[in-house]
Each structure stands twice: as C-alpha cells, then as structure tokens.
Amino acid sequence: MRNRWLIGWMSMILVSQALAQATNPTPQQRFLEKVAPSIVAVEVVVRYEIHAGDDSSSGEQKQTLTGTVLTEDGVILVPSIPFSSEWLKQLFGEREGVQMNLSPQSFKVTFAGDSKQYEAELLATDSQLGLGFIKLKERAERALLPVRFRDTLPSVGDELWSLRRKGKSFDYAPYYERVLLTGTITKPRRAFITATTANFGLEPGTLLFTPEGEAVGVLIPIVDPSPQEDESGSMFGGRTSSLFGTYLLSYADLKPILEKALTRKSEGGAQ
Q1: pLDDT digits (tens, 9 = 90+) for 67-96
Q2: CA 207/CA 258 separation, integer angstroms
Q3: Per-residue DSSP letter, 204
Q4: CA distance 115 to 178
Q5: Hey, how many other C-beta atoms are within 10 angstroms of the C-beta on 228?
Q6: CA-to-CA distance for 207 and 190, rounded, in angstroms?
C-alpha cells in the first residue's frame, strides 16, 4: 500500500513538472518561437569554372543556406560567399593564369512546415560583406514575418543568439547558437569580435539577436589585409583561408546597406 502511494505521489510530481514546463517555456524556446518564422532555408545551385593554364574544371553544386526574411513581399538576406567570385578573389588573391568564376543558377526558398519551394531571383550582393539579397518571384501562400531590428549598439560582453536551420534531411529544423561579443576592431572596418562554441562555427550572413528576438547586426567575413604568402603552393596563391574571421557588423552600419538593397528591389537587377 505504501509503495503504491509513493508511486502515485511521484507520478503526480512528474506530471506537474511537465505541465509547468509546457506552460512556462524557457527563454530559448520563446526565442525560437518568435524568430523561427522569419528564418528560411534557401537552396542555391552554383555553377563553378576554374581555369589554371591548360587545365580547367567546371560543374554545378547545390547547397542549402539560411535566409532571413526582410520584407513582407519576400526580400530575403542570404550569405553570398557560396556564389561570389569576388569573395574568392578577396580570400585567395589573384594569380596569373588562374581564373575562378562562380555564378548562381537558381534560388529556391522553403518555409518551415511547407513542402513547396518558391523560386527567387538575385536582387543585389555586397561582396565586401559577403551578403546577398534575393526576392521571391511569386507571392508566398502565407503571410511573411519580417525580422525585427533593434537600433541599439551592442556592447562587449553581450551574449547574443543566432538562429539557423538544418538541411532537408532534418526537415529544416531551427536551432539557436550563443555568441559572445569579446572585443571590437576599427580597421579595416568597425566591427565586434565574436566567440562561440558552435560545432560548425559562425556563418557569415547570419543575423545576431537579443534573447528577446530583436536583431542587432549581421555576421560578416573580414580578411586580414596584411600580405601573407601561401607556402603550400596552392593554385589560389597569395592568401590562405586561415586569414578569414567572422565579426559582427552592427545594425547602425548595416542599415544603409539594407536600404540600398531595398532600393534595388524597385529598380530590378543585381549588382
């Protein structure tokens, strides 16, 4: 009898704890629920061409990027590094007799809980910041929720959160990562130094948010401008990828770039 009473009592405690967790979500759960609708999966097909002397190679590659909805009519922020020839030149430098070209062939956007893929077109790029802007070719069948920005400069020591999506095999599940601002730089541009324990590092083109779900800036790649020779004899020559770091560009500095991209929306075409 006593054992039955103990089992019943413990069951009641477990049920009450489960109900409390369901009715009182953690800050991380609230963050996911608030921001995830603005985060999409973008499948891009990129054609690559590499020419080095008499040797050449070409083909197409497909990969999934994390995109962020900026406007209700379907303008989306994406990292441009995977399809930017100019970024390759910044990263590896230029070498006589070597040509590298990347050109995006298509963009397809998938929203959470929706199996339909929406085609999008390239609107604008900023090769210096590794940012791209695409726009849906047709109106989405759902109301789009643009991300919210906070026009407040973050501080060293702030813990910010990012949100990305897994690939198709994982049903584009959203997940958050914690990023700490550990310092600042003023050259070659003003930005915050970042640190994270993320398994796969930080992805340029990803927005960073306050725990309340307001974006305060975007992660950008910065190449160390000091010359350093690649001793490996790589065909790219000049630079090595180890000279590339990921920093936070605040919303104050991102805002004019966003405005310029949205102006391109009405004019059409990419640059």
Answers
A1: 999 999 999 999 999 998 887 777 666 666
A2: 13
A3: T
A4: 29
A5: 12
A6: 17
